[in-house]
Amino acid sequence: MRIGVLALQGAVTEHIVSIEKTGALGLPIKRIEELDGVEGLIIPGGESTTIGKLMRKYGFIEAIREFAGQGKPIFGTCAGMIVLAKRIAGDEAGHLELMDITVARNAFGRQRESFECDLEVKGIAEPVRAVFIRAPLIDEVGPDVEVLTLYKDEIVTARQGNLLACSFHPELTDDYRLHQYFADMVKDSIAANL
Ligand code: GLN
């Protein structure tokens, strides 16, 4: 099983290391043609405005929408979650506009710029270690979106069919269970398309 990590900007190598712990092959994706060689895609954290700009420049908006349209799973973490969202709070336009969520950027304020904690994730037995860095929150979810994690009553992980999004950085810990959760989504989508 091959899982791509969008390699335009952000925490690419760490995601590849984490995905390979699940037994899948992790491949950096720099050109749209490379999407043909993977069954799932991770969009990493970084800076969502920069990632969105580079995605437009290299044709990734259409290519990733098509990828999602084929039922292939996508996992957006932190800035990657912002890029996946249909709506961004404030005046900012969305990027891929695939997932029926509204996100608020940099939602934790200055004094909480970065922090770590353990969080319950629906579908994973024990709490998962979560690293938040200038993290976004999910303000609203559409009817088809399942909330998987709350942090102090705020939504920080959610799933809509083959789309998974989280506010934090699962690739910066040696807890690989969220990557395993995503790898299982990819495995299920391959089985469903056989
Ligand atoms: N604050 C960043 C943004 O709005 C996201 C931060 C991150 O990915 N760690 O794009």
UniProtKB/TrEMBL annotation:
Per its UniProt record, what InterPro entries does this chain match? Class_I_gatase-like, PdxT/SNO, PdxT/SNO_CS
* Catalytic residues as annotated in Swiss-Prot or TrEMBL: 78, 169, 171
- Domain of life the protein comes from: Bacteria
Concerning Pfam families, the annotation shows: SNO
Enzyme Commission number(s) of this protein: 4.3.3.6, 3.5.1.2
* Recorded catalytic activity of this chain's protein: aldehydo-D-ribose 5-phosphate + D-glyceraldehyde 3-phosphate + L-glutamine = pyridoxal 5'-phosphate + L-glutamate + phosphate + 3 H2O + H(+); L-glutamine + H2O = L-glutamate + NH4(+)
Q: Where, by residue number, does L-glutamine bind? A: 46-48, 105, 133-134
Supply one GO molecular-function term.
Answer: glutaminase activity
UniProt keyword annotation of Hydrolase present:
yes
Hey, which pathway is this one from? Cofactor biosynthesis; pyridoxal 5'-phosphate biosynthesis
The protein's role, per its UniProt record: Catalyzes the hydrolysis of glutamine to glutamate and ammonia as part of the biosynthesis of pyridoxal 5'-phosphate. The resulting ammonia molecule is channeled to the active site of PdxS.
Q: Which HAMAP family match?
A: PdxT
Instruction: Give the family per the record.
Output: Belongs to the glutaminase PdxT/SNO family.
Name of the molecule in the record: Pyridoxal 5'-phosphate synthase subunit PdxT
* Species annotation: Paenibacillus rhizoplanae
